[in-house]
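Request: When convenient, would you put together a sequence paired with its structure tokens?
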Amino acid sequence: MQPEPAPFSMWSAEFLIPKEPISEDCLYLNVWTGALSADEKRPVLVWIYGGGFNSGGSAVPIYDGEAMAKKDIVFVSLNYRVGPFGFLAHPALTEESGRGASGNYGLMDQIAGLQWVKENIAAFGGDSGNVTIAGQSAGSMSVNALVASPLAKGLFNKAIAQSGANFSRGSATLQQAEAEGVKLAQSLDAASLEELREVPAKELLQKAQGMRGPNIDGYVLPSTIAAIFAAGKQNKIDLLTGWNEDEGLLFGPIQSAGEFRKQAAEQYGADTKTFLSYYPASTDAEAATSQLNLSRDMIFGVQNYTWANVQSEQGKNKVYVYRFTREVPATGEYIKYGAFHTGEVPYAYDNLDFVDRPWEPVDHALAKTMSAYWVNFIRTGNPNGKELPQWPAYNVGKKQIMTFGKKAEAKLLPDGAALDFLHSRMSSK
């Protein structure tokens, strides 16, 4: 259950779920395999979709698994509940749970899917001991949460996190999430769980627009993700992570240069000059660009960057970092979005054929290269392989990453200082 999809912003229909069926009866998964027998032990990828924890589904065209299956990967995509069906907490739900927690049902769906994979994937020629979880946006935030959750221990050994993590943003506490649930129940005149469960799904969905995602419930997530990682209590995995050049998402109008500088002064005080050196605003055009870059960095960049740094500093598992910079070819209103949020997905999983864009030869070459890196990582925890440009492992000192533009090229991360500045400000709040 979720709002009926319609193309919006940078996303054409290929990036969204089909209009039907949309149903509460949704907890299924899909398996693509080229294996001819159950003893082949092919590496497994489990895909977790994005959608802000309020939308999304495994039937999105760009999540098709056939291309990866042809590369000897067993590709699994799973559904999890979203919106209030996946994340509604309430004191009465907490009480009846028997574990003092409620509201993280969407994450528990993902864990149940991974448990199914562990128990059953051998029948499809998959290796239950070589499982990579991957996701983008809220799917990437889910991957981050699963790496942090003790309930997911032993269910995977590698992770791919594309544009999303939870290091410098506060997740709701259980008490905050329960308070939201109480307000929702009151708005529906539901005085008990029984009455709440009698509310039609569409009515519940309509009243619960904008509901948060996961909460720190003490069960799925024992504490904040940042704290779990700082204590080294996360599941130990190899990591491939990154974000896109043009995925800033503004939730209000573009400010003029003067307005932007004024707001910066109010927010950053004595550090305003430093902030404006990273996000300059000498003209309205420059300020507009800085606002998009700031949005990109706060919502996505600083999250995945922090994860890469923590993984590098702890030193037990490798991490590989990318930046997707290819301006996705487009016509009409879509031209302006560049290397937009989700734009890398059809390249990484070799699914350009599912997207109606004016692809150029360099796009098909890039999809071949990116998907080869992804396949190698899924197999071994190292994206490198024959006839591919060398992708250096990331370390917090040197900050080498792989950029995916018209070609794949290793470079130094260009904006580490800006991300360090933002992280220091966001984590101190």
